Amino acid sequence: MLETITQYPIAAALIALIGLALLFGALLGFAAVRFKVEGDPIVEQIDGILPQTQCGQCGYPGCRPYAQAIANGDAINKCPPGGQTTINELADLLDVDAPTLDEEHGEESELPTVAVIREDECIGCTKCIQACPMDAILGAAKQMHTVIADECTGCDLCVEPCPVDCIDMIPVETSLKEWRWDLPPASHEQAENLIATDLGRGQAQKTGEAA
Amino acid sequence: MELIKVWDIPGGVHPPENKAQSLVEPLGSIPIAPQLILPVSQHIGAAAKPIVKVGDLVLGGQVVAEADGVFSANVHAPTSGRIAAIVEHTVPHPSGMTDQCIILDTDGKDEWVSLVPWEDFDTRGKEDILSRIRQSGIAGLGGAGFPTAVKLNPRANHPIDTLIINGTECEPYITADDILMRERADDVVAGAKILAKLLNQPERVVIGVEDNKPEAIAALTEAADGTAIQVVSFPTKYPSGGEKQLIQILTGREVPSGQIPASIGVVCQNVGTTAAIYRAVRFGEPLVKRITTVVGEALQSQRNIEVLLGTPVSFVLEQHGYNHKRASRLVMGGPMMGFSLPDISVPVVKTTNCLLAPDKKELPPPEPAQACIRCGMCAEACPASLLPQQLFWYAQSEDLEKLEAHNLFDCIECGACSYVCPSHIPLVQYYRAAKGEIRQHRIDKEKSDRSRRRFEFRQDRIAKEEAEKEAKRQARKKAAEEAKKKLAEQKTAEPDAVEKAKTQAAATSPDTGKQQAKLQRLLAAAEDSLRQAHKPQEDATPEQLEKQASRIKQAELKVADAKKKLQAFTDTATASGTVASQTESASGSAEKSNDPVAAAIERAKAKVSMSPEEKLRSSLESLHKRLQKAEQKVREAQAEGSDKLDALRTGAEKLKEKIATTQSELNDIAPSTVAEPTPMDSATSDAASSAIEKAKAKAAAMATMSAEDKLRNQVVALEARLEKAQARLAKAKQEDDENIDAFQTGVNKLEEKLAMAREQLAELT
Question: Region Hydrophobic: start and end of each range (chain A) (predicted)?
C-alpha cells in the first residue's frame, strides 16, 4: 500500500482527491435534499417591506411579483407609494446602496390618499369593483358603490375605469390621534447662525479652499 | 406603625422651584365665563359622544357627552345654560389642531340637576362605587388624563398590595396639588379610603409628598391620623412625581418596560383625582371643575383657582391681569413638560394643572441648539437610566430599530436631559418625534399586512373562479364528445332505430286527431285576436295607435306561428302514417329526424377542434355574412324611406369595424402558427398587465416631461375622455338609458376639468 503510494505519488494524490470530492459531493447532495427550504425566504422579507398597495406602479402586477423581481436582481427604487423609507429598508435588507426613487414610476406623494366615490353620481357599473386589488369597494350592479376607507390603499386603479368620473382621490387628513411631533430643525442650521460671525462662515471656507 | 423606607431614583435634576409666588394667596375662584368650550375628548382613549342638540337648555352636572366604550369618560355641563353649537374648535394640544367641542352659553344662574349624595357610601358595594366614578367622568387630573375607573379595576391576575396617592408635584411653578392638600386634606384622605376599599384593602396605602411642602404634609398627617394611611415625605428632586419614579421611591420596585404598575402590584393615583373621587362618591358631584395654578410674571396676580372645565384660557388670564406684551409665550402645564399654547381661545380641560405666562426674563426663548459634545450629562440626569445621547443620534438618523433597542419607549419625556444639555439640544422633541414615527410605522405595517392578506385572498378567489370555469368548459367538452359517440353507436344500430321509429309512429297515431284539433283551435284563437286588433279605434291617441300596431304585429306573429305548427304537425302525421304502412321509408324518416342533431354535433365538433386562427376566420366569415345582410337591409330601408335607416346604418358601420378588428387579430395570429398560451393564463393576466403597461408608459412619459407638456398631455387625455363620455351619452340618449343624467353630469364635469386645464396651460404659455 505504502509502496504503491510512494511509487505513484501523483496517481495516489488524484485518487485521494477524487475520493474526497465524491464524499463531500454526496454529503452536500444529501444536505440539499434533507434541509431544503421551501420557497424563497428573501422574497418573503422583501414582500414584508413593500407597502402592499398593489398599485402596479413598479410595472409588476402587485407587490409580491415585484418582490420576486427584486430578489432576481431588479432595481429597488421603483416603488413610489413606499418612497424613500421603503428604499432605505430594502437597501438595508439587501446590503446595497440606497438609490433615490426612480421618477419614471411616479412621484412619492406627500400625503396618503384614499378613494372616495361621489355616491349620488354612481351608476352602479361595478367597473371600479373589478379594478380594486384590495376588494375595498362594496356594491352590486345598478346599486350604489362605496369605498371601505380603512381598506383602501390609495392605489388609484379605480379612477380610470369609472365611466361617470365619480371617484376622487382625497388626501387622508391627520386627526389629533394621528398627529405626531416633528423633528426639531437640524441642529447645524441653528448653530451656524449662533453669533454674527457665523454668518457666511461656510462660504468663507469654501472660497478659501478655492483660492 | 412601621416606617416606610424611602428609596432613591437614578438621575434627576433640581430646577428652580418657583412655587412660592402662587402660594401667597389662598385658593381663589373666578366668575363663570359667558361661554364654556367643552372638548369631547379630554382624556386618553375614545372621545365621548355628544348627546345634546344645539339649542338644548342644560343644567349644571348634566351629561352632555357620553363615554364611548370603556376607555372613555363622560363630559358634564359645568353650569346651566344653552348649547350654542357643537363644532370643531381649537383644543389644548401641542399640535394646535381642532377637535369636536360642545359650546355652552352660560346663563349665570348656575342651576344644577339634583345630585344624589350617599350618606352611606362606606357600606356601598364596589360595583356601585365604580359605576358612580365612571358616571362622574373622572379622569386622571395629574397629567395624561387616564379614565380613572379603568385603573381601579385591575385584572384578577394582578393582586394589588400597594396604593400610592401621588402628591409629589415635582414640576416647577405648579402648586395646584399643594394647595389642594393644604385646604382639602380630609377629602384626599377620604378618597384614599374609598380607593383602598375598591382595591381590596391593599397592605399599604401611602400618600407621597415631596419635602418642599411641609404645610401639606402637616395637614395630611393630621387628616390621616388614626387611619392606616401613611403620609411619606421624601427629598425634592425632579422628576420624582412621575408615576414609575414615585413607585420606585416608595417601594424600591421598578415597573418593567412596557408594562403597567398593576403588574407589580401597585396602583397610583393623583391627589386631585383622589379628592374628586371622594366628591363624586360622597356627594354625587361630577368632575366639572379643577384647581389650576395661574402663574407667571406676565400676570398681575398669581394664585391657584378653582375653575370650571371649559373656561377659555383667555378668560382666566383676563381675570388675572394678563399683559401679553410682557409674556414670552403661554404654556399649559409646567416649564418642563408643558407645551406652548397655539392660541388663548382654548379651554381649560381635565388635565390642565397650570397656566404659565412667563415674561421674557423668566423663561427666555430656547437658545439655538449646538452640536452634541458627548459630555454625558444627559445620561446622568435621566431618571429612566436611558442613554439620551445615543437616542439622539438614532433619532436624528431615524434608525427606528436602534431606537427601540435602546428602549426609547421607556422615556417619560420629563425633559431632564434637555434641561442639563449644555448644547441646548431639544432632546425630548427628538424622542417625541421618533416615538410618533415608530407608532406610525407600526400602524402602517399592520395595515400593509392586512392589505397583503386581502390581496392574496382575492388572488386565490379569482384563481378558484377561473378553475371552476375551466372545469365547466371541460365538462361541456366531454358531454359533446359523449354525444358524438352516442351518435356513432346509433348509426351502427340503425335497424334498432327503425324499430323504434315504428313503435313511436304507432304510439302517436291515435293522438293525431286530437292534436290536430288543438292546433286548429289555437289558430282560430290567434286569428280572432288579430281581427280584434285590427278593429279601428275612433278616438285613439297616437300612443294608443302605436300600441295597437304592435298588438297587431304580435297577433300576426301568433297566427303565423300557429299555422306553421299546424302545417308541421300535418306533415309528421302523414309521414308517420306512411311509416306505419311502409317499413323502408321509415328508415329514411328516422335518418331525417337524426339529421339536425348530427349537424349540430358536427358544428360543435368543428368549433372545438378549431385553432384560434380558424375560429377567427370563421367568425370573420359570419361577420361578413351579417354585414351583407345588414347592407341589404339598409338598401331596403332606403328604398322604403324607413325611419330606421340611421340605426341600420350605424349597425352596418359597427359590423364593419368588427370585421376590421377581427381581420387585424387574424393578421396578428397568422404568423405564429404555434398554439397560443392556455386561455387561463391570458385571461387572468391580460387585463391587469395591459393596465399596468399603460400606467407604466404614462409614468415614464410624465417623468421626462416639463410642466407645460404635462398639462398639454392632460388636456389631450381629457379631450379623449370627454369624447368617449360624449359618445356614451349619445348612445345612452338613443337607447333611452336610465343613467342619462349621470352620464350628462360626467360629461359636464369633464368639460369643466378640461376648461380648467386649458386655462392653466394658457397661463403657462
Answer: 1-32
